Amino acid sequence: DGKKFAWSRDKGKPFKFTIGHGQVIRGWDEGIMKMSVGQRAKLKVTADYGYGARGAGFVIPPNADLVFDVEFLRIVPTGESIKSDFLSKLPFLLAYIAVVLWILKYVRSDEQEL
Q1: Where would I find the PPIase FKBP-type domain in this sequence (predicted)?
Q2: Nearby residues of 4 by Cβ (< 8 Å), 6 or more positions away
Q3: Per residue in 63-114, pLDDT tens?
Q4: Which domain holds residue 99?
Q5: pLDDT: which is higher, 49 or 11
């Protein structure tokens, strides 16, 4: 319906999560991995990569396709030790790096953007 449900920029505090650990919806894990630090993008997330048939409480209805306006601010090391042989496995390295981004807004994809 075009309503904001989470907006970290308005709160002045970036949202932090670790990629690949199931802390966020699949659409975020996969979408953020394709972004570069400093990039702003709209992540279009279908229901099967978002909240699916369950929705999210009273905020996101079941089977909702979503659009998130995000900005990838920086990468923050998680503090876990990284072995030299692990560095050769770059895709797995991403799973051990936390990302910080602004959640600017979301709109259901079947609604007009603001």
Answers
A1: 1-76
A2: 10, 105, 106
A3: 999 888 888 888 877 654 444 444 455 554 454 444 555 555 555 555 544 4
A4: 8-108
A5: 49
CATH number of domain containing 20? 3.10.50.40
What's the pTM? 0.63
DSSP secondary structure string for all residues of 38-103? T-EEEEEE-GGGTTGGG-BTTTB-TT--EEEEEEEEEEEE-S----HHHHT-HHHHGGGEEEEEEE
Residue in 21, 31, 32, 13 with CA at minimum distance from that of residue 99: 32
CB atoms within 10 A of CB 102: 19
Q: What is the pLDDT of residue 95?
A: 46
Q: Are 28 and 16 in contact (CB under 8 A)?
A: no
Count structural domains, the chain: 1
Indicate whether 2 belongs to any domain: no
Q: In this structure, what are the phi and psi dihedrals at residue 92, rounded to the nearest 5 degrees?
A: -75, -30
Distances from the Cα of 18 to the Cαs of 22, 32, 114, in angstroms? Answer: 8, 11, 29
